[in-house]
Amino acid sequence: MICMTSSISHVELPHSISLLEQMASKSIEKGPFTYVHSGAGNESTLRANEAAFEDWYIVPQYLNDVSFRDTSATLLGTTFPSSFALAPIGVQSIFHPEGELASARAAAACGVPFIASTLSSYPLEDIAANLGNTPRWYQLYWSNDEEMAISMVRRAEKAGYSAIVITIDTSLLGNRERDLNNRYSPLKLGKGAANYLHDPVFQGRFASPPSADDPEVIKNIVDIIFNPSLTWENLKTIKEHTKLPILLKGILHEEDARKALHHGVDGIIVSNHGGRQLDGCISSLEALPSIAEIVQGKIPVLLDSGIRRGSDVVKAKALGADVVLLGRPFIYGLAVAGEQGVEHVLRNMINDIDVTLALSGFASMKEVNSSLIRRKK
Ligand SMILES: Cc1cc2nc3c(=O)[nH]c(=O)nc-3n(C[C@H](O)[C@H](O)[C@H](O)COP(=O)(O)O)c2cc1C
Ligand SMILES: O=C(O)C(=O)c1ccccc1
């Protein structure tokens, strides 16, 4: 992999995500860039995610003392500096050789919570070792091979992850036409294999240590990642195997929010996977208000898909999200300048949220409510 601009310093990095995205397109090869940038189908959901934020105006109120501001958020008993965490993003070594280790260090430097993907390029234990004291959760693709899923949950507990995020919108991979046209599949290249290769249960199935260079091993992994047979009933099994809080990522329908409450889930993430799974589906922001209405604050509601700037975070908060997840933007930072690039994106985001809060007339993120926004006519 080439990383042509890895020597770029912090000060030279742009402050808008669109410019960073352009730089990323020149920093890495076409396959990986398209992989992060594109969506499923004709990308209508991908477009809808960002467009949905434009449907709302912030209507500020002034002459409130905003000289001291509290942008912090508390989730599942943990407080962190700003109302966002890093979305789980797999295969990060296709964007920068240090992959998740670099983004974990940047998250640690800023105290931004990190969600490690099942399909990380580095083992979850190594990622944890780079996270300092920053909160960390483990995103699980609940494998069709249950022994493997349980083994990963055990390892996540042992490595200090404090919640399990189960992604429910990926019974199989979305139809990503651009990646198919590019014949580009990071999974088939073995870039998301680390958590399997380092797993004692997985290793126990081979006479010699399994390697990403072995096509049979990779095929074996690709065959067990996803689990299209999962149902709400399976949640019981998952709960039997961990005491950690469980969040479901990929809730879009009000009925699923009701079922999540009914099944004793500890949090939900309103998400369409950044438009990478079901094309033509509802944008996350559009889905949020009615879901927040059903949840009534009983469990945390998070949102991702389309968060690009501070005003997006404030709008999501006003429509009922407790916290949002940042996805593609930090990967553009990673692609352009590794750890420094991610840290640059995080610091910009923290600052932009703070400025937006003050200019909206609020001194605390916790006070933001629907009175702050109005839908465009
Ligand atoms: C390159 C890439 C890899 C991703 N990998 C995962 C993953 O392993 N697990 C997961 O639950 N979501 C994954 N996602 C989805 C993100 O967690 C998040 O839902 C999405 O990026 C939000 O959309 P946005 O980046 O446009 O804001 C991935 C997204 C991207 C762009
Ligand atoms: O691309 C994704 O959205 C995703 O979840 C994933 C991540 C790594 C490998 C395969 C799929």
Automatic annotation (TrEMBL):
Cofactor: FMN
PROSITE patterns: FMN_HYDROXY_ACID_DH_1 (PS00557), FMN_HYDROXY_ACID_DH_2 (PS51349)
Ranges where the FMN hydroxy acid dehydrogenase domain occurs: 9-377
InterPro entries noted in UniProt: Aldolase_TIM (IPR013785), Alpha-hydoxy_acid_DH_FMN (IPR012133), FMN-dep_DH (IPR000262), FMN_HAD (IPR037396), FMN_hydac_DH_AS (IPR008259)
Keywords: Oxidoreductase
Record keyword Phosphoprotein present: no
Catalytic activity: (S)-lactate + O2 = pyruvate + H2O2
Superkingdom of origin organism: Bacteria
UniProt family annotation: Belongs to the FMN-dependent alpha-hydroxy acid dehydrogenase family.
Name this protein carries in UniProt: L-lactate oxidase
Protein source organism: Psychrobacillus faecigallinarum
